[in-house]
Design goal:
Layout: H1 2-18, H2 23-30, H3 34-41, H4 61-81, H5 86-100, E1 108-112, H6 115-128, E2 136-143, H7 148-159, E3 170-172, E4 187-192, H8 195-210, H9 218-222
Parallel strand pairs: 2-3
Antiparallel strand pairs: 1-4, 2-4
């Protein structure tokens, strides 16, 4: 479907959540997983819609089976991952940075609108490297009209980075042609200016997805139970 397709689904999910729809209702309406809806709309203020007295048509048998299957597989995924060890966090952080982190030499930088990913990145950076907390920086991308002070407080709590270490925010002008609903807390970039740390991370990425990738036997992964 591509990024724009997922963006449309995400914004629709947030709009429906703001209207008082349940996570399950939204998942069924959009044909996506309940886990995706939870990720996209967890920070949207929610007030349950009053139930109409008239009988409402419920989901059909296919929709009910799909919802049950989604929930079961989501729980299976949680159980399969289990509790992360220190090495699990180490490898997960490398993969996360490989996908979302800055690759330009000189500074570690990671940006995302999902507070869970930002929290994992900060935990990984602090656990796997010796860093100077005073050199951590954060920059906020937030649409005009949204509460900047509240967003900074929110991300400061997520990252444990003091507000005074936040740089000048970027205030985006609304673009009605792209989105109708905006991230209430915006998108955050966390940075740490240290060439040595950044180059070490790039080396670890190459160790995971570079030279060793061709050495992994495909049949080893086919044998992992689903």
């Amino acid at each position: 479907m591509g990024y724009r397709g997922k963006l449309a689904e995400r914004e629709a999910a947030r709009r429906l959540r703001a209207e008082g729809r349940t996570m399950l209702d939204i998942a069924q309406i959009l044909g996506v997983s309940k886990a995706s809806v939870s990720l996209w709309a967890r920070d949207v203020p929610f007030e349950a819609r009053p139930r109409a007295r008239a009988r409402r048509r419920g989901p059909n048998a296919l929709q009910r089976r799909k919802a049950v299957d989604i929930e079961r597989r989501w729980q299976d995924g949680l159980a399969r991952v289990g509790e992360l060890s220190e090495r699990d966090l180490f490898i997960a952080g490398i993969a996360l940075y490989a996908g979302e982190g800055a690759k330009t030499d000189g500074a570690v930088k990671f940006a995302n609108s999902d507070p869970r990913l930002i929290r994992v990145f900060c935990a990984w950076l602090r656990a796997c490297f010796e860093i100077d907390e005073s050199r951590l920086r954060a920059w906020l991308y937030l649409h005009e009209g949204l509460d900047l002070e509240a967003a900074i407080r929110y991300w400061s709590e997520v990252t444990s980075i003091p507000p005074q270490q936040f740089g000048k925010p970027y205030r985006a002008k609304p673009d009605e042609g792209i989105r109708a609903v905006k991230h209430v807390h915006g998108c955050l970039a966390v940075g740490y200016s240290c060439s040595a740390t950044h180059r070490t991370i790039l080396g670890m990425i190459d160790g995971v997805v570079g030279a060793r990738a061709g050495c992994w036997p495909a049949d080893k992964f086919r044998a992992i139970p689903g």
